[in-house]
Amino acid sequence: CQPPPPHPSSALHLLFSISSPVAPRIVVDPKPTVTDIGSDVTLTCVWSGNPPLTLTWTTKESNMVLSNSNQLYLKSVTQADAGQYVCKAIVPRIGVGEREVTLYVNGPPIISSEAVQYAVRGDRGKVECFIGSTPPPDRIAWAWKENILETGTLERYTVERTNTGSGVLSTLTINNVMDVDFQTRYNCTAWNSFGPGTAIIQLEEKEVLPVGIIAGATIGASILVIGFLVALTCFLYRRRKGTLTLHTDREEDTASVSTATRVMKAIYSSFKDDVDLKQDLRCDTIDTREEYELK
After folding, report:
1. Is 164 exposed, middle or buried (0-12, 13-18, 19+ CB in 10 A)?
2. Is 80 exceeded by the pLDDT of residue 208?
3. Which of 50, 113, 206, 224 is an S-S bond match for 22, by CB 3.0 to 4.6 Å?
4. Per the confidence metrics, is the pTM higher than 0.85?
5. Which residue spans traverse the membrane (predicted)?
6. Which of the residue ranges 18-27, 103-112, 229-238 would you say has the lowest mean pLDDT?
7. Of 2.60.40.10, 1.25.40.10, 3.40.50.1860, 3.90.380.10, which CATH number belongs to 116-205?
8. Does domain 21-106 have CATH number 3.30.70.260?
9. What's the CA gap between 110 and 108, in Å, rounded?
């Protein structure tokens, strides 16, 4: 007994399914990974599509391709490898799909703050120390001269710690900033289970223009603008007036020329009439003389 042959419509449907283009579709989503410094890491991302798709792994900050397979293998990672990675699938002329995944690398605290920060003399100044690495710091301390402060207030100085979405921020606030504060180096040190991290920060004075100078500059600029507008208005008015005068002069010149032309025409007409009269008289005289000679 043999099975019946497949129905023609079923075969056609199967053929259509095989040859029909399909945009990229995620099969295995990449998962956020936490690992320790020095470990090996494998990130996995699986896609399906038709025709066969092209797969690339990159970091979010770069377009350099790290891998073209479903897996991205990183050996002996460092804290510099931490961040976001992008798994992208491309079906030519059909569609593109991508997924982002974050890699966390545990290590000593990394302090990312400006080495030089600024404050205004006599105002409240701030020196900031940010730790964005993992794991979060267990302890943060500020040290300057003979002073050490982890939290709270000491004379003119106050330390506050804030947990942000991307790390921990420790702020040293200085009330009534003085000359001595610009001559001091501030040491921010953080500790976690992998060890310490340290940053040295210098406070420099920020120049601020006096209110009088700012107000004077504003008034001076306003006066210049007004003066410019007045001068422009006068210039345009004089130019328009000059154009009107020139136009009037041209009309007068035209009228004068017309009058002179009429006078000349009148003189020429009188002269022409006189010449014609003399010519007629001469002709009459000649005719009379000829008649007399014939007689």
Report:
1. exposed
2. no
3. 50
4. no
5. 211-237
6. 229-238
7. 2.60.40.10
8. no
9. 6
Per-residue pLDDT, 263: 47
Task: Decide: 117 and 188 in contact? Cβ < 8 Å.
Answer: no
Question: CA-CA-CA-CA torsion for 182, 185, 191, 194, nearest 10 degrees?
Answer: 130
d(CA 259, CA 253): 10
Specify the pLDDT at position 56.
Answer: 96
Compute the average pLDDT of residues 127-131. Answer: 96
Question: Between residues 128 and 210, which one has the greater pLDDT?
Answer: 128
Residues 6+ away with beta carbon under 8 Å from 214: none
What would the two tokens of residue 69 be?
Answer: 């397979």
Whether 21-106 shares its CATH topology with 116-205 is answered yes
Calculate the CA dihedral of residues 221, 222, 225, 230 and round it to 10 degrees: -140
Instruction: Give 99: exposed, middle or buried? Use CB within 10 Å, 0-12, 13-18, 19+.
Output: middle
Mean pLDDT over residues 257-263, rounded?
Answer: 51
CB neighbourhood size of 172 (10 A): 21
How many whole angstroms separate alpha carbon 259 and alpha carbon 272? Answer: 20
